[in-house]
Amino acid sequence: MSTRAVLEVIALDVEDAVAAQAGGADRLELITDMAADGLTPSVRTFAGIRAAVDIDLRVMLRLTDGFAAGPAEDVERLVRIALEMRDAGAEEFVLGFLDAGGGVDLGVVERLAGELDGCRWTFHRAIDHAADRTALRKQLADLPGLDTYLTAGSAAGVDDGLSTLLAEAAHRGEPGYEPQLLVGGGLRLDHVSPLRAAGLDAFHIGGAARPRGWDEPVSSAAVAEWRAVLDGK
Length: 233
What we know:
Blueprint: E1 6-11, H1 14-23, E2 27-30, H2 43-52, E3 56-60, H3 72-87, E4 92-95, H4 106-116, E5 120-123, H5 133-140, E6 146-151, H6 158-169, E7 180-183, H7 189-197, E8 202-205, H8 220-230
Parallel strand pairs: 1-2, 1-8, 2-3, 3-4, 4-5, 5-6, 6-7
Helix pairs in contact: 1-8, 3-4
């Protein structure tokens, strides 16, 4: 396990970002409104965080709770926001939309990926709610910039999805499985050992970085504990 595992931490503001970097985070997922499972932050928030830390930032592109993109005007608003974020210096993003049948909303995802013009992006946990995650992977396989799937292996979280994660890890590098698996969603420290043993090397935490709850900021000590475990210390 000589390869350093990626540790991504959810950040809501500058205080979170600074604490996460101090604790050893490699990357931040920037969101607002965790009660809605993470929506797009303001450009001002992004700019403040970008000025405060020097690690990678991935900006969420989602306007409402759930995995539907919404009406055409919402899609156009997301496009405008993405362009504004890019103008402010954003280079990495997070997105993912499903249609009413649980399939990938390919038109919307393709539109946003095209507007991002090669920026790297994560397809988030919508994959865990998809009717067929294998079909979803095949449909997204050739989209530019897609380099990561954020997944727990199950909509219910890593406890239920562990076997799926281990099975998918065995397919890494095959068509549709080239993007990195970023494990998150009910992730605990005791999950790390079997996941690392299977070759998984990217981990995403939100509540685990806030031992006193979402009303409190990220704890640099909590992030440092994850960093140490991932580094095998």
